[in-house]
């Protein structure tokens, strides 16, 4: 019997939290034999809803779930956690300036960084989901200097999964047979979904997605904008932003980070840039990564042609602007 792992979900009374907590409790994130203690954090106005989520988790009688701590106290929430999924944040409301939203989130992430640094286990792995995800992760990293930078990541797996899904639909092949798309850069509409190295497993071996689709016009235009705009399309149709797909992607991200990526397969993660592919160090940028023994490494040596280069640089530029803007919001 394994020791239970403590998984923190912030913003747990929100819609992603409601989808994510049961997935974690069922073993989707850390495996079917890994007992879990859930730490659920939200703010005071959501305390009653948060408690209802706890009641439902108890009522679901998940065999792996060995405890639920639901709290509005950030110190209690962070105490001893092994994995921290940061979903809580301040949403942009109508009529709000971008600066006001950024200031609020910068403050939240600064405070939560300190709490994690002081109270989480030493090797705690952090996944930031709340937007602006890359920049929130960067703020968290800067204000938790004792957490290794390798342990702080942000979610672009939803974009990665959306790209796999678009290819699967287009070619009418199972999504599990499509692999090695890449999301480069920011989790925003400037992200660059790249299929130049993507393949499909077929009866006669691995085939390149570009060859199978045989329509560069579609791949270089509609495919890219569909993935970039998918979040907006969900909001338009659902009147709410993506929740179940975001929760599932968060599980995939942590699952592969902790348990490893299959041989020959990479995934996309927002990680601290080491300067790979000419991306300025000091940004949290989405790269193709493989994971082994709980550590990610950026896939090196992929050939980048002109079309990709421009798009990778444009999204890096947006991240640099966001970074300086976030700093200008710090009091
Ligand atoms: P909700 O508004 O439903 O939930 C957010 C929750 O966070 C609320 O319950 C709120 O009370 C709580 N919260 C606010 N401040 C907090 C604080 N200081 N500490 C703890 N909790 C706090 O939003 P939801 O739809 O769940 O989305 C959550 C975040 O994920 C948003 O920032 C959203 O933009 C972001 N997303 C990121 C995605 C990604 O791929 N990286 C995709 C999905 C999603 O849009």
UniProtKB/TrEMBL annotation:
Signal peptide: none annotated. The keyword Transmembrane helix applies. One of its GO terms (biological process) is malate metabolic process. It catalyses: (S)-malate + NAD(+) = oxaloacetate + NADH + H(+). Residues 156-323 form the Lactate/malate dehydrogenase C-terminal domain. Residues 6-152 form the Lactate/malate dehydrogenase N-terminal domain. Its EC number is 1.1.1.37. It is an enzyme of class 1 (oxidoreductase). One of its GO terms (molecular function) is L-malate dehydrogenase (NAD+) activity. It comes from the Eukaryota. This is malate dehydrogenase. The chain holds residues 78 to 408 of 408 of the full protein.
């Amino acid at each position: 019997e394994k020791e239970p792992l403590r998984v923190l979900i912030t913003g747990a009374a929100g819609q992603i939290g409601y989808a994510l907590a049961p997935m974690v409790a069922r073993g989707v994130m850390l495996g079917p034999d890994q007992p879990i203690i859930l730490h659920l954090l939200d703010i005071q106005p959501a305390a009653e809803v948060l408690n209802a989520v706890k009641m439902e988790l108890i009522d679901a009688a998940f065999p792996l779930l060995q405890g639920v701590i639901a709290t509005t106290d950030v110190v209690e929430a962070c105490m001893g956690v092994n994995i921290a999924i940061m979903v809580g944040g301040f949403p942009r409301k109508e009529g709000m300036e971008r600066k006001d939203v950024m200031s609020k989130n910068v403050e939240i992430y600064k405070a939560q960084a300190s709490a994690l640094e002081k109270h989480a286990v030493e090797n705690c792995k952090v996944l930031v989901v709340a937007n602006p995800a890359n920049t929130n992760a960067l703020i968290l990293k800067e204000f938790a200097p004792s957490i290794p930078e390798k342990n702080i990541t942000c979610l672009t797996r939803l974009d990665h999964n959306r790209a796999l899904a678009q290819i699967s639909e287009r070619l009418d092949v199972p999504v599990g047979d499509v692999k090695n798309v890449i999301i480069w850069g920011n989790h925003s509409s400037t992200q660059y979904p790249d299929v130049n190295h993507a393949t499909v497993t077929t009866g006669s071996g691995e085939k390149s997605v570009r060859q199978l689709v045989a329509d560069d016009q579609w791949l270089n235009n509609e495919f890219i904008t569909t993935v970039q705009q998918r979040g907006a399309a969900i909001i338009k149709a659902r009147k709410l932003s993506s929740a179940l797909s975001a929760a599932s992607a968060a599980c995939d991200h942590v699952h592969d980070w902790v348990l490893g990526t299959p041989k020959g397969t990479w995934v996309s993660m927002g990680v601290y840039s080491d300067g790979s592919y000419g991306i300025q160090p000091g940004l949290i940028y989405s790269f193709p990564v493989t994971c082994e023994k709980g550590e990610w490494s950026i896939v090196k040596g992929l050939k980048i042609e002109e079309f990709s280069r421009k798009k990778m640089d444009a999204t890096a530029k947006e991240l640099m602007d966001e970074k300086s803007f976030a700093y200008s919001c710090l009091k």
